[in-house]
Design a protein that fits this description.
mainly alpha, about 0% strand, 3 domains
């Protein structure tokens, strides 16, 4: 990987290192001086390089995409910083974690020919079907795998076959989300895209105590403060709640469908 791609935001001087990354954003808000934004990028770039490289390797896209991913992050960060306030409880990078993940997936879907798909829904299905196939391919017959995936994801057999053929043709390995809770799940993106909205707060309020606890454990999100902590696996969540692992997965899926209804209301609201 070329050095210029790894050092896109390095400054010609050594800036003062502040105690916390969020302090750079607060200083920018206080002074309106973009040097604090640039100095943040100077120190954060090695971390950004690592995160973007991991995304590239995990999703089997070309290495030359690194500058694009970094620029997407920087552009998103600048836009979010303009809306950020000094009294915000959440660090800006915590908000950016979810927005960046969503933006990088969209970039991969629309710009990377290796996994180019017509819609977000199709790309999400590809990411779900593929790891399930690779998990079962050495222990079950192809037709059995198709039937099982079709039943689990509620997709037609022919559609499942098309996704598997796409994955094999592009050497796409998919995401880990079908085996275990992925690093950043779709529901986390929805929540942090809209965490200030009344609709998402209302959605969380409609959950039963056990549903809310289950969602908090599997997303690592405290819904009172929207602070994050370590998320638990389905297995550990099941042990804590006295449920089976399959029951946790089934209930979590039901909870997500309930919240997605509110997400559609939010999207409709913002389009008006």
């Amino acid at each position: 990987m070329q050095n210029e791609n790894l050092n896109m935001y390095q400054l010609g001087y050594e800036p003062t290192r502040l105690d916390d990354f969020n302090d750079y954003f607060l200083q920018y808000l206080k002074t309106n001086d973009s040097k604090y934004f640039n100095e943040f990028l100077h120190f954060y770039e090695p971390i950004l390089n690592r995160k973007a490289t991991e995304f590239i390797e995990h999703n089997h896209i070309e290495e030359y995409r690194l500058p694009d991913l970094k620029q997407i992050f920087v552009s998103l960060l600048w836009d979010e910083l303009q809306r950020y306030t000094a009294d915000e409880k959440l660090p800006l990078l915590q908000i950016m974690k979810y927005k960046t993940h969503k933006a990088w997936l969209e970039y991969m879907r629309t710009d990377c020919t290796i996994t180019n798909m017509e819609s977000k829904n199709a790309h999400n299905n590809l990411r779900k079907v593929t790891p399930l196939y690779f998990k079962m391919k050495d222990i079950k017959l192809f037709d059995e795998i198709v039937k099982e995936i079709s039943k689990q994801l509620h997709l037609p057999d022919n559609t499942v076959i098309e996704y598997i053929e796409t994955a094999l043709a592009t050497k796409y390995s998919g995401s880990r989300e079908s085996f275990e809770i992925e690093d950043i799940s779709e529901i986390e993106v929805i929540i942090f895209d809209n965490y200030k909205s009344e609709q998402i707060k209302r959605a969380i309020f409609t959950l039963s105590p056990i549903e809310r606890k289950l969602l908090e454990l599997t997303t690592g999100i405290n819904f009172d403060t929207f602070e994050t902590k370590e998320k638990l696996s389905y297995n550990r969540t099941a042990l804590l709640l006295g449920m089976t692992e399959s029951a946790v997965q089934k209930k979590r899926k039901h909870i997500i469908e309930k919240i997605k209804i509110f997400d559609k209301e939010i999207n409709i609201f913002y389009r008006l």
